[in-house]
Amino acid sequence: MDVLIHLFVGLHIIGIAALLGGFLTQMKAMGEGRARFVPGMLHGALTMLVTGVALVGLNQADDHHVNSFKIGVKLALLIVILGLVYVKRDEERVDKGPFALVGLLTVANIFIAVLWT
């Protein structure tokens, strides 16, 4: 079971990298007012959602303690991220506010995962 959990943790990190990487590649464009949500950002957020749910299930099945409140906060942030990216995915240009919010929430989600014990 540990191998499967570690596999899903790796996939979860790949999803985070796709979402954050898409944001970081668009930061210069955001400063110029022509940023857009690239497809990799949506795919990364969806990967995070699927692997995160799988990780909660696998950890509970393996009798590991799962902090439900922490997972709920992370899920709420991810749903906001997914909503923004999904709704504005076809727009040629996205305002700085929503675009920056996605980056901020992504970084917040990372720090919650790492620092909240």
What does the secondary structure layout of this molecule look like, with pairings?
Elements: H1 2-25, H2 27-31, H3 39-61, H4 68-87, H5 96-115
Written account of the structure:
With 117 residues, the protein is mainly α. The protein is built from five helices and no strands. Helix 3 (39-61) runs antiparallel to helix 4 and helix 4 packs antiparallel against helix 5 (96-115). The longest helix is centred in the N-terminal third of the chain and has 24 residues, at 2-25. The chain is elongated, with a radius of gyration of 15 Å.
Helix amount, in percent? over 70%
| Terminal residue distance | 22 Å
Radius of gyration: 15 Å
What is the makeup of the main sheet? none
The count of strands amounts to: 0
Rough outline: elongated
- Estimate the mean pLDDT confidence: 96
Low-pLDDT segments, ≥5 res: none
How much strand? Answer: under 5%
What is the overall number of helices? 5
Write the element-wise H/E pattern from the N-terminal end onward. Answer: HHHHH
SS-based class? mainly alpha
